[in-house]
Write a structure and sequence with these properties.
This protein is an all-alpha fold. The chain folds into three domains: 12-265, Cytochrome Bc1 Complex, Chain C (Up-down Bundle); 283-394, no CATH class; 405-524. Helix content is 67%, strand content 0%. It has 18 helices and no strands. The chain has helices at residues 28-47, 55-64, 69-96, 105-126, 132-147, 152-160, 165-197, 203-206, 223-249, 284-289, 293-297, 301-322, 334-356, 364-390, 399-428, 432-455, 470-491, 498-524. The protein is globular and about 65 Å long. The two termini are 28 Å apart. The structure holds protoporphyrin IX containing FE (HEM).
Length: 526
């Protein structure tokens, strides 16, 4: 008799197309949940060793003495990075497919709060190691908080303590854990709403009309084992990469500090002076805006944080009320779509700019030169294509082609801008190098333009095929390799070779994900 009763979990069935290779877009939230689970598990282990009175020393102790300490700390950091990247992917996917519309308005708003909490938890966590970067991040945060009119000094004291190390790092640890707990709580309701509202169906099923829901039909496979095994497969891949990537980067002691899985030097060491004052990479876009000349003269960093941080957040919170049309199609909402694309383009440009020239003041004219072309190209391109589409001169197909169409159009906008810059640079600094850059960006633009045109035409649905004996051979070989890797990692030193163990473990998880994907393909044809 079944003791687990998993098959009686009150979770919704989903159509087969949501579990195909292209179906991953339906589960971006699940990927975040898996990364969050990894964060909670590794965070609880790190909590056992953390000492807010001397954070740098306790962190070094984890790195140099605790078995697998390096791996747990490095993958906890990258797990946070994975969560932040996935939250943006999840939000923008739902934004462009219109998943903030009826009946998911509240689900979306809770989502925006989850985004803010995820970034907040990332900021407080990043600032806990006590290294030079965490102290810089705290200084920037304290600087902005203290500038808030009236509340500034109060916020600075409840946020950053009474000036002693212990009070500062205890508060940061507290806020880090509180935010993680709030994420868990809000996610509970967010997920309940996802089940109650059902998943947004494919555009073929919804015909781009709201309210779009996925009612259960008799031909749908039961949640267990179909969805259950699919989520395990997603879990193996997600955790595999969260472990493998930092383990690989960690093998290079001179990896750039922005991506290193290890903390930087102590703030009191001579090396600290050589490190530019970087915030965490996921706040680089905001940090670069602080350098914009016009802000220096007016309100300082607070204005930049409001314009490039708070206002976009308020926009995303209000979008269910600002865009109330009944169409889900991105080209039927050209302004919303353009604003979505431009916010991604700005985040990418500012982050790269911030990484290469942190703290360098930018004159207003240069700011305009950088901000205006993407704005004009994005709105021009999307409005133009939307007009063609509304006139029936452009046929857009089912969900998979719509997603690739959006990716191509986003890529096209970025390369058009880069080609514009390369051309103006080539005109001013004519050389083989600048010509080479122009040809490269121009080539990328032509490729993406063809891609955009191609994906705008109808694409047939995928048909499933049974896999021959080869599948079984692959499963056996992959399983054998997993055992060999696990055997090797058991012989490694858990302190000095922790990252090599991580490489093996990450690979084993990814191989297991492939084995499960083959098994599901053979057994369920998905
Ligand atoms: C910690 C962060 C978050 C977690 C763990 C999370 C988790 C989830 C899960 C598990 C689902 C079910 C479908 C799926 O797997 O994708 C979902 C759906 C959804 N989420 Fe989130 N989410 C988070 C943040 C966000 C954010 C930032 C937004 C938007 C601002 C958002 C908006 C939505 C919407 C609109 C749906 C419905 C999508 C559909 O029906 O296809 N979520 N979320």
């Amino acid at each position: 008799m079944d003791r687990t009763h998993i098959d009686r979990l009150p979770l919704r069935k989903t159509p087969d197309y949501m579990r195909t290779w292209g179906g991953k877009w339906y589960w971006t939230g699940a990927l975040i949940t898996i990364a969050f689970t990894y964060e909670v598990l590794t965070g609880l282990v790190l909590l056992l060793y953390y000492n807010p009175a001397d954070p740098y020393v306790s962190t070094q102790y984890v790195l140099t003495t605790v078995p697998f300490g390096k791996l747990i700390l490095g993958t906890h950091l990258y797990g946070a990075y994975a969560m932040i990247v996935l939250v943006y992917v999840h939000m923008y996917r739902n934004y462009f497919v219109g998943a903030y519309k009826k009946p998911r308005e509240l689900q979306w708003i809770i989502g925006v709060l989850l985004l803010a909490l995820t970034i907040g938890a990332g900021y407080f966590g990043y600032s806990l190691t006590g290294d030079v970067l965490s102290v810089d991040a705290q200084d920037v945060g304290r600087g902005i908080a203290s500038l808030i009119p009236v509340l500034g000094p109060w916020l600075a004291s409840i946020g950053f303590g009474n000036g002693t190390t212990t009070s500062l790092f205890s508060k940061f640890l507290g806020y880090h854990i509180i935010m993680a707990a709030l994420i868990a709580l809000l996610f509970g309701y967010h997920f309940y709403l996802a089940e109650a509202n059902t998943m947004l169906p494919s555009s073929k099923a919804s015909k781009y009309r709201v309210p779009a829901t996925t009612p259960e039909t008799h031909d749908m496979k039961p949640w267990y084992p179909s969805n259950f095994l699919y989520l395990i497969e997603l879990g193996l891949f997600t955790m595999g990469f969260i472990i493998l990537i930092p383990s690989f980067v960690g093998l290079f002691p001179n990896a750039p500090i922005l991506i290193s899985p290890y903390p930087g030097p102590s703030p009191t060491s001579a090396l600290a002076a050589l490190i530019p004052p970087y915030p965490p990479w996921f706040l680089l876009f905001l940090y670069k805006a602080l350098d914009f000349g016009m802000f220096q003269n007016v309100m300082g960093p607070l204005t930049a944080s409001v314009i490039f941080g708070l206002l976009p957040l308020i926009y995303f919170l209000l979008i269910p009320f600002l865009d109330r049309g009944n169409s889900l199609h991105p080209l039927h909402r050209p302004i919303t779509t353009s604003l979505g694309i431009i916010s991604i383009v700005y985040m990418i440009i500012f982050s790269i700019w911030g990484a290469f020239s942190p703290g360098v003041i930018i004159q207003p004219l240069v700011v305009a030169e950088v901000l205006l072309p993407p704005l004009i190209v994005t709105f021009g391109t999307v409005m133009g294509i939307s007009r063609l589409w509304k006139k029936g001169k452009l046929k857009i197909g089912n969900k998979s082609s719509t997603t690739s169409f959006l990716i191509f159009i986003l890529g096209l906008v970025v390369t058009v801008i880069l080609t514009g810059y390369s051309f103006s640079y080539f005109v001013v600094h004519t050389s083989l190098l600048s010509l080479g850059r122009l040809i490269l960006t121009g080539g990328a633009t032509s490729f993406l333009a063809i891609g955009t045109a191609k994906t705008s035409s109808q694409l047939p649905d995928q048909k499933f095929k049974k896999i021959p004996t080869g599948a079984y051979i692959a499963i056996v070989l992959l399983t054998l390799m997993c055992w060999v890797l696990l055997g090797i990692s058991l012989k490694l030193n858990p302190v000095t070779q922790a990252m090599t163990v991580g490489m093996a473990l990450g690979t084993v998880l990814i191989f297991s994900g492939i084995v499960l994907a083959i098994y599901r393909r053979v057994m369920f044809g998905e």
